[in-house]
Design brief:
- The protein is an alpha+beta fold and about 210 residues long.
- Strands 1-2-3-4 form a four-stranded antiparallel beta sheet, covered by helices on one side. The protein has a three-stranded antiparallel beta sheet with strand order 5-6-7.
- It is built from five helices and seven strands.
- Helix content is about 50%, strand content about 20%.
- Helix 4 packs antiparallel against helix 5 (about 180-190).
- The chain starts with a strand and ends in a 20-residue tail after the last helix.
Length: about 210
């Protein structure tokens, strides 16, 4: 699954779900890579989306009042003479520049969507037309990661090293890949003791996932 967004003067940001990890790439408008990394699925959870809004509303109101105050006379003069006066041209140019600035800042700083995982943080423009796609991508990524972790680390072998497998079960429960009943059932199969729980084993959870 691919997620891609182009931002004004900032280039392109791309996220791709690959077989064993999440590929992230940021490129400038000249196609120069600023970031290119593949984060393994073991280091993704949790997946979070956060929207921020920092519109300078007061500043925009002041600019609108200034435009009305400065532009009313050139507009009246142009209306009375039936011609496009230099004053009106100046007002229109100022409006065009202000509109471009607003569009640029809207895309860069005012409305943002922050995509975060345990080891990756990227910022996108919060556009209404793209919002559903972002939430779908985040939900699909979380689901895919949990399925990947369950398939690769959710199996136990009572004949193998017990301590390593206990830490794996703790880690999977911490990442909410396994529910508490699932983890407890696997612990019973692993240790052969009905009263055993993950919390009662006395093992500390470590950020290890290697076989």
């Amino acid at each position: 699954m691919l997620l891609e967004q182009n931002r004004i003067l900032l280039g392109t940001t791309q996220l791709v779900m690959r077989e064993h990890g999440l590929y992230a790439c940021q490129r400038t408008t000249q196609n120069i890579p600023l970031l290119e990394v593949e984060v393994p699925y073991e280091k993704i959870l949790p997946v979070q989306l956060e929207r921020t809004r920092q519109v300078p509303t007061r500043w925009l109101l002041y600019m609108l009042a200034l435009i009305v105050w400065v532009g009313i006379e050139p507009v009246q003069e142009s209306w009375a003479t039936g011609t496009v006066t230099p004053g009106l041209i100046g007002v229109l140019v100022f409006l065009a520049v202000l509109g471009g600035f607003v569009a640029l800042e809207w895309d860069r700083r005012w409305f943002l969507l922050h995509f975060r995982t345990a080891h990756l943080s990227l910022t996108f423009a919060d556009r209404r037309r793209d919002r559903a796609q972002f939430y779908t991508f985040a939900h699909t990524l979380e689901k895919r990661v949990k399925e990947y972790l369950r398939a690769h680390y959710g199996r136990i072998n009572p004949l193998g090293p017990i301590e390593l497998q206990v830490r794996r079960l703790q880690w999977l429960q911490e990442m909410q890949v396994l529910s508490e009943p699932e983890a407890r059932a696997l612990m019973v199969r692993l240790t052969g003791r009905q009263q055993e729980t993950l919390q009662g084993m006395g093992h500390e959870l470590e950020g290890l996932y290697e076989n």
